[in-house]
Automatic annotation (TrEMBL):
<comment type="subunit">
    <text>Binds to the N-terminal domain of the chaperone ClpA.</text>
</comment>
<protein>
    <recommendedName>
        <fullName>ATP-dependent Clp protease adapter protein ClpS</fullName>
    </recommendedName>
</protein>
<keyword id="KW-0378">Hydrolase</keyword>
<dbReference type="InterPro" id="IPR022935">
    <property type="entry name" value="ClpS"/>
</dbReference>
<dbReference type="Pfam" id="PF02617">
    <property type="entry name" value="ClpS"/>
</dbReference>
<feature type="region of interest" description="Disordered">
    <location>
        <begin position="1"/>
        <end position="41"/>
    </location>
</feature>
<feature type="domain" description="Adaptor protein ClpS core">
    <location>
        <begin position="40"/>
        <end position="118"/>
    </location>
</feature>
<dbReference type="GO" id="GO:0008233">
    <property type="term" value="F:peptidase activity"/>
</dbReference>
<comment type="similarity">
    <text>Belongs to the ClpS family.</text>
</comment>
<keyword id="KW-0645">Protease</keyword>
<comment type="function">
    <text>Involved in the modulation of the specificity of the ClpAP-mediated ATP-dependent protein degradation.</text>
</comment>
<dbReference type="InterPro" id="IPR003769">
    <property type="entry name" value="ClpS_core"/>
</dbReference>
<dbReference type="GO" id="GO:0030163">
    <property type="term" value="P:protein catabolic process"/>
</dbReference>
<dbReference type="InterPro" id="IPR014719">
    <property type="entry name" value="Ribosomal_bL12_C/ClpS-like"/>
</dbReference>
<dbReference type="GO" id="GO:0006508">
    <property type="term" value="P:proteolysis"/>
</dbReference>
Length: 123
């Protein structure tokens, strides 16, 4: 790639608006390379509901529908899994999304005076 010399009125500036001019005004040659930064996939976190003996099943279903956008059928399946196994996965999300969902579940449970627990763990 050849660079043309800067116009006489521009002084030591280059074609990029004055950044990085060397003041020689001559021509330069070089290789233009395009580097692509390697983007790392964000860590994912599982959001888990924990069983307790006090939170009504219907409330858990409503939370799953509201916070996790589950259909009634999916919410029922997850709720029953939590009830039978003690813990159940609601979804897998990037850190900030998982954290927000855990907070929403916990806030909703407290507001309705239920001891429902929700946690997240790295996948």
């Amino acid at each position: 790639m050849r660079l043309a010399p800067a116009p006489a009125h521009a002084g030591p500036q280059d074609d990029e608006g004055g950044k990085g001019g060397d003041g020689r005004g001559g021509t330069e040659t070089g290789t233009a390379t395009k580097t692509r930064p390697k983007t790392k996939r964000p860590n994912l976190y599982r959001v888990l509901l924990l069983n307790d003996d006090y939170t009504p099943m219907e409330f858990v279903v409503l939370v799953l529908q509201d916070v996790f956008n589950k259909s009634r059928e999916e919410a029922m399946q997850i709720m029953l899994h939590v009830h039978q196994k003690g813990v159940g996965e609601c979804g897998v999300y990037p850190y900030e999304v998982a954290e927000t969902k855990v907070t929403r579940v916990m806030d909703t449970a407290r507001k309705n005076q239920h001891p429902l627990q929700c946690v997240m763990e790295k996948q």
